[in-house]
Amino acid sequence: MVPRLPIATDSKAELVVFERLKQAFARDAVHAQTAYALHSLNICSHDYKRFAEIDFVLCTTAGIFVLEVKGGAVSCTQGCWTFENEQGQKTVNREGPFKQANSGLQGLRTQLEREFGEAAMHSVCLGYGVILVNTTLNVRSAEWEAPMLCNQRALRDLEGWLGRFFAYWENRNKAAGVPIKPLTLPFIRELVQFIRPDFAQSAVEGDVIPQIMMATVEPPDNGQAFSCSEPMLSAPAPALSLQSVSRTILSAIAMPQVSTPSETTIETPVLPIFMVNIVAMTQVLNTVLDYLAQFSKTVDLSKITLVFSDDLNVERVRLYRALKPHYRYCQMIDEPVTQSQRYPDLTLMNLSHSRALVNTVIIGVCPLSAKETLTSEFLKRAGKHCIMLYLSD
User: Fold this and answer.
1) How many Cα atoms occupy the beta-carbon half-sphere of 344 within 13 Å?
2) Is the pTM of this model over 0.85?
3) Burial class for 165, CB neighbours closer than 10 Å (0-12, 13-18, 19+)
4) Among 41, 48, 125, 245, which is most buried by a count of CB atoms within 10 Å?
């Protein structure tokens, strides 16, 4: 459940459903590990409302689903819905709960397509439903089908209803020609992080200037060390945020430039050039773009590969999407490469998939805690230049 405790609300019905969902997911071994229920979500993109709220969003391997919850007595006359609470107070709603749930889903879908792209969302199963906590309503209508409605009886076996609900929307999406694929756990977590992000941002006073530090690295194959003998300063890149990331980054950046008396001197030029630069995470995209632009003046983009440690797959996907508007033909590789394989443009891949890779420029990304164990692996893959980005824990 996100959050672990329900959002403050006057709706007793939402509190009941919150607990039932929590119990249902806990009893199901699969859902306990892969399903998320987000309570009371505000959405800023809606077809005809300035503001809109979704009672519950379910992100599961089966897809993304919106639930509208209503309590008390319910009636509908000539398309106008009326809800009456325990105190006898009545609320009239001409929209109706099913249309309300559907419009919320479409608003959420619009935001997800903007963030992840229409292609990524095209194979995701989407659906909506209504839970009536205090009634046994079982009316048939052209406006909804039975699996879309959970009444008081169905709520007693919420796991069973959810199974039928997911199956109904899977069949309905497939009938509409949608090539449904189960969502992977990493993608589910990325969806949840976007929909309801966790972040922590420290206050910053004044301009933030990147600090450049000296680095000495032991090469993988011999004992001959190479170093940057002098610190070097560079102007800060304009901030361009990669969403939902709140970590700072240590980056060791290879500079494809001719040295001048004021610049860094490389003592052993036969080894990959190596330098350390501390950059705020909000500057990472601009930093990468800056150095890609410099490299591309003398190196074909096919000679540049971004390699990520296997535990940073979400960061790899996010950076790929951020780079795509700038490098239209860049590719994300999700299978092991062979020595004979060559790609026509900039590529991004996991470390385990790049064992046979040797390219002119390697941009490696790994946690700072893995610096000692993984740096040599990235260096093995670099022909001339190695850019290391160390993400702090």
Assistant:
1) 2
2) no
3) buried
4) 125
Three-state DSSP state, 191? helix
Q: Which pLDDT tens digit goes with each residue over 11-67?
A: 888 899 999 998 888 876 666 678 899 999 888 765 555 567 899 999 999 999 999
Q: How far apart are CA 150 and CA 165, in angstroms?
A: 9
**Peptide bond before 3: cis, by omega within 30 degrees of 0?**
yes
| Chain position carrying tokens 């608003």 | 107
- Closest to 284 measured CA to CA, from 258, 308, 311: 308
**What pairs with residue 141 in β-bridges?**
144
Q: With contact defined as beta carbons under 8 Å apart, do 347 and 333 qualify?
A: yes
The pair of structure tokens assigned to 63 is 């897809």
Paired tokens of 40: 């009371």
* 3-class state of residue 339 by DSSP: coil
CATH of domain 12-195: 3.40.1350
pLDDT top residue among 277 and 237: 277
DSSP 90-134: EEEESS-HHHHHHHHHHHHHHHHHHHH-HHHHHTS-EEEEEEESS
Q: What is the CATH code for 211-391?
A: 3.40.50
69 confidence band (pLDDT: 50, 70, 90): very high
Quote the percentage of the chain above a pLDDT of 90. 26
Q: Determine the average pLDDT of the residues in 261-268.
A: 37
d(CA 387, CA 233): 17
- In angstroms, the CA 363 to CA 345 distance is 14
| Selection from 117, 45, 42, 182 nearest residue 318 by Cα | 117
Provide CB contacts within 8 A for 322, sequence distance 6+. 242, 285
Q: 3-class DSSP state for residue 306?
A: strand
- Domain ranges within the chain, ordered by starting residue: 12-195, 211-391
Write out the two tokens for 68.
């509208």
Q: Could you give the C-alpha distances from 287 to 48, 213, 280, 368, 387, in angstroms and in order?
A: 40, 16, 10, 18, 11
CA distances from 66 to 58, 136, 166, 276, 321 (A): 6, 21, 11, 46, 26
Q: What phi and psi, each to the nearest 5 degrees, are found at residue 367?
A: -65, 150
pLDDT value at position 140?
A: 87
* 172: amino acid identity, one letter: R
Rounded CA-CA distance 129/148 in Å is 5
